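Q: I'm writing a short methods note and want an example of a predicted protein-small molecule complex. Could you take the sequence and the SMILES for S-adenosylmethionine and return the bound structure as tokens? Please keep the output block clean; save any remarks for afterwards.
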Amino acid sequence: MRIDIATLFPEMCEAYLSESILGRARKAGCLEVHCHNIRDYTLDKHNRVDDYSYGIGKGMVMQPDPIWRCYQAVEAMAQEKPWVIYLSPQGAQFNQKKAVELSGRPRLFLLCGHYEGVDQRILDKIVDEEISLGDFVLTGGELPALAVTDAVARMLPGVLPQEECFARESHYDGLLEHPQYTHPRVWDGREVPEVLLSGHHANIEAWKLEESLKQTQKKRPDLYQAWLEAHPPQPEKKRKKRKFTEKTPPDTPEF
Ligand SMILES: C[S@@+](CC[C@H](N)C(=O)[O-])C[C@H]1O[C@@H](n2cnc3c(N)ncnc32)[C@H](O)[C@@H]1O
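A: Understood, no commentary inside the block.
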């Protein structure tokens, strides 16, 4: 997957994207992310990319032309047309479901606004979708673009050691994750739950699901309710009378 971030502050984004898991994934070629400085595409002799807003507003607005020129140049850098996202407090709120959906696209173009925002005409021309990080206003779209990039990238093959790393985490299946423990076995008089030391896979799995349900019920009753509705209790199936054979030991549960 290729992600292009168009911003006035590419160094801010590069600093984050060069470190830790994403930095390693980029070096290993599991993920291609490029940060583009919109200012490089202005034709203004003073390198301006913004101007006063029309109307009575006081702030500065990013002009459409440098963004259009940046977009055209970036679009031509690879074959597929990118899915264009404008990070905006007016967009639909980002979540794990959206991250999963975006991780299936071959190319994303993330447009970061700054100041009062971006001239509406370029948004009308190129944007496929607006995404918000939440109901609050930030100074720029860089943090939201990095949040989207991070959440999407960690689901790409090779970025994390195994798919299980993200597929069992909070929000992936509608639940919050069970509590996690590491060494030492006893810390501050508090012990790691016995079952996790047992090596009994079925019991450990059952404990994880139970704890996951408890965490969700306690911290996010809205998610818990939605999960219960999506997983109604199964009616007990009637036991069929079966003849015992050598292949079916007497204690085999019947489904
Ligand atoms: C100060 S904000 C502009 C807010 C705009 N005047 C409004 O009221 O909707 C500047 C830029 O930060 C980004 N931004 C701010 N808050 C955001 C949020 N919650 N989610 C995503 N992007 C955000 C957007 O790219 C926006 O263009």
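A: Remarks, as requested: The chain has nine helices and nine strands. Confidence is low (pLDDT under 50) at residues 244-255.
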